[in-house]
Amino acid sequence: GGSVPGRCRAGVGSPDSPTREGGPGRLASRSDGRSASPLISSPVWQQAFKDTGKTPVEPEVAIHRIRITLTSRNVKSLEKVCADLIRGAKEKNLKVKGPVRMPTKTLRITTRKTPCGEGSKTWDRFQMRIHKRLIDLHSPSEIVKQITSISIEPGVEVEVTIADA
User: Fold this and answer.
1) SS3 for 89?
2) Range of the domain at 86
3) Which of 4, 35, 55, 162 has the most crowded CB, counting CB atoms within 10 A?
4) Do residues 97 and 151 share a domain?
5) What is the distance between the alpha carbons of residues 43 and 49, in angstroms, rounded to a whole number?
6) Are 20 and 12 in contact (CB under 8 A)?
7) Cβ(83)–Cβ(156) under 8 Å?
8) Are residues 92 and 36 located together in one domain of the fold?
9) Contact 162, 66 (CB under 8 A)
10) Which bin fits 92, alpha (ψ -120 to 50), beta or left (φ > 0)?
């Protein structure tokens, strides 16, 4: 093991590189017979650098229960985004529940037409309907990022919450 410029090696090498006097993986002995560092000369330290010949196996990716909430005032655009999300999830073979259609919220404002209060008592009745859909997925969060990166229609609000199953 050659030294890298700018790095302090302090006599610690890989198990097969010679270090000060003691041969591979050993430090020079002290005068009382014990090694200078029991950690470095221990088999545990040497096992950390041992080449087993296997490629490192990726750890199991955590599967989360993910809820996607879609809200919009426009039903057509809401249903289009909903269908796109579900199509993307099914292409990746994910467990999908939904779309669950929640009750439509109807917000009403009744107000007088005239600003001054004179004249016949005519009223305007305004209302806004808010539609809501829920989609539940069982998948890793990285895949959900890919699915939700689709183009989302204007006026559709997407909320993604992760709850561990």
Assistant:
1) helix
2) 64-115+123-163
3) 35
4) yes
5) 10
6) no
7) no
8) no
9) yes
10) alpha
Whether residue 72 sits in one domain with residue 32: no
What the block records as the tokens of 101 is 């259609």
Q: What is the CA radius of gyration of the chain?
A: 33
Per-residue pLDDT of 82-141, as tens digits, reads: 999 999 999 988 899 989 999 999 999 999 999 998 999 999 999 999 999 999 999 888
pTM: 0.59
Q: Which two tokens stand for residue 49?
A: 């650098």
Task: Give me the residues paired with residue 129 across strands.
Answer: 106
Per-residue burial over 141-161, b if 16 or more Cβ lie within 10 Å, else e, is eebbeebbeeebbeebebeee
Domain count along the chain: 2
Does 56 map to a domain?
no
Q: Are residues 34 and 95 in the same domain?
A: no
Both 106 and 153 in a single domain?
A: yes
Geometric angle at alpha carbon 13, from 12 and 19, rounded to 5°:
85
Residues 135 and 105 grouped into a single domain: yes
Burial (CB < 10 A; 0-12, 13-18, 19+), residue 37, is middle
pLDDT, tens digit, for every residue of 35-52? 555 555 555 555 555 555
CA–CA gap between residue 29 and residue 35 (Å, rounded): 5
Tokens of 119: 């004249």
